[in-house]
């Protein structure tokens, strides 16, 4: 990447990739909630009433778990939608892409380590401790995390 336009396009591509990933997570959570509800509704009453109640309770617990996952994904989606990809950043902040030795970070949403076009990018929530360490960092600055110190080569 050399031109500013290519850098902005790359950040927009990362953001879109994250939005697509969260969209798939939301769809998966919705489907899992529906299946858990159907499983609870279809639990047949057997001669052992406790088995029926246990099956229904398990179905409801699974539905609640998927509802929490859905809620988290919706929050991440809102966070990522609010992240600006323009203008170029000159220091670590929400919307910044930081390239370090062996690591790349995109401060946007907490999606973790992702491989995009063969490149590993760590998507960090702006509230993540590591994002806090990267806050205000510029090219040439060093950051220590996980018992490792890395030098930031580029920020945009």
Task: Describe the structure in your own words.
The chain is of the alpha+beta class. The protein folds into 2 domains: 4-82; 97-155, no CATH class. Helix content is 51%, strand content 21%. It is built from 3 helices and 6 strands; from the N terminus they run H-H-E-E-E-E-H-E-E. The protein has helices at 4-42, 49-82, 129-134; strands at residues 97-100, 103-107, 112-116, 119-124, 142-145, 148-155. Strands 3-4-2-1-6-5 form a 6-stranded mixed beta sheet. The mean pLDDT is 90.
Overall tally of domains:
2
Structural class: alpha+beta
Please state roughly what percent of the residues sit in beta strands, choosing from under 5%, 5-15%, 15-25%, 25-35%, 35-45% or over 45%.
15-25%
Shape: elongated
Order of helices and strands: HHEEEEHEE
Strand order of the largest sheet: 3-4-2-1-6-5
Query: How many DSSP E strands?
Result: 6
List the helices and strands and how they pair.
Blueprint lengths: L3 H39 L6 H34 L14 E4 L2 E5 L4 E5 L2 E6 L4 H6 L7 E4 L2 E8 L1
Parallel strand pairs: 2-4
Antiparallel strand pairs: 1-2, 1-6, 3-4, 5-6
Helix pairs in contact: 1-2
Key words describing this protein structure:
156 residues, 2 domains, 3 helices
Quick gist of this model?
This protein has helices spanning 4-42, 49-82, 129-134, and strands spanning 97-100, 103-107, 112-116, 119-124, 142-145, 148-155. By secondary structure, the protein is of the alpha+beta class.
């Amino acid at each position: 990447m050399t031109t500013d336009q290519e850098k902005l396009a790359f950040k927009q591509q990362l953001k879109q990739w994250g939005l697509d990933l969260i969209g798939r997570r939301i769809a998966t959570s919705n489907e899992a909630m529906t299946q858990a509800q159907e499983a609870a509704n279809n639990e047949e009453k057997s001669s052992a009433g406790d088995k029926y109640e246990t099956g229904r309770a398990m179905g409801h617990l699974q539905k609640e778990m998927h509802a929490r996952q859905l809620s988290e994904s919706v929050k991440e989606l809102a966070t990522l939608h609010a992240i600006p990809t323009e203008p170029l950043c000159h220091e670590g902040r929400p919307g910044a892409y930081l390239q370090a030795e062996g690591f790349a970070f995109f401060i946007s949403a907490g999606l973790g380590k992702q491989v995009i076009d063969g490149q590993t990018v760590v998507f960090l929530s702006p509230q993540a401790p590591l994002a806090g360490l990267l806050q205000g960092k510029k090219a040439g600055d060093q950051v220590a995390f996980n018992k490792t110190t890395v030098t930031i080569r580029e920020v945009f």
